[in-house]
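Many introductory courses stop at the sequence. We go one step further.
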Amino acid sequence: MRLAALVLIALANPLLADSIPVFTPGDEGRPFVDVYASELYSAHCVAGAGCTCAAMPLSRADLAVALGLPEVAAEVQGVWDSPATDSSLTDEGTDALHARFGGSGTCPQTTLEPVDGLWRDGTPFNIAVQCGPGTEMFRQVLANPKTVTARLVWNAGFSGETIQTAFMAANPDPDYAPHRFQNVTPVETLGTASLAAEGGALTSTGRMRLLTPRLFSVHWHVTGMTEAGACNWSTAQLVRWIGD
């Protein structure tokens, strides 16, 4: 995944005000807290052992885009992801889903944390380019990037620096300008960089947001001037966990 071609869905949700408490197996019975006020949760479930549940920082409309669906029905309450099944929508509450997978009491709440392993970038979408006479050619370049797989070890934290380092190691790009990332919330990171251009300069902004433990989105927005005049582009992209 060339980070110059990565892009995320910009999600308009309030920033996390308080950190989410991490629950251990002995903490069952504590109520689930929808800290993002999204009315959605993400669950990791194992047959016979129940689930762990985390608040999700996205709306149903955003979730539909992330999963490639026309829409997500109003009755959907969450997404569960078991070892034997891809991500699935459910209209069950956290406790009901936990019980279906063999758990008892309240689904243990956890922070939303990414899973270590191999991650692969997807084809960019929502591509917007305004870059003078090279607009259409540049649009085609952005729409057909090389697919890259990188191994990510998160150390329990979602980090733009971790993503940048891993994907650049997997697919070195001498033209890539390293971004400086700052965590906005535990599930969102923002990076910026200045890029030299013929006859001008560009500013690149990258925003990455963890959507489920096995899915994050990336959005790059580049603005500035070249010798041909104003040049602005943006793209959206999803990056998925594909295995250990």
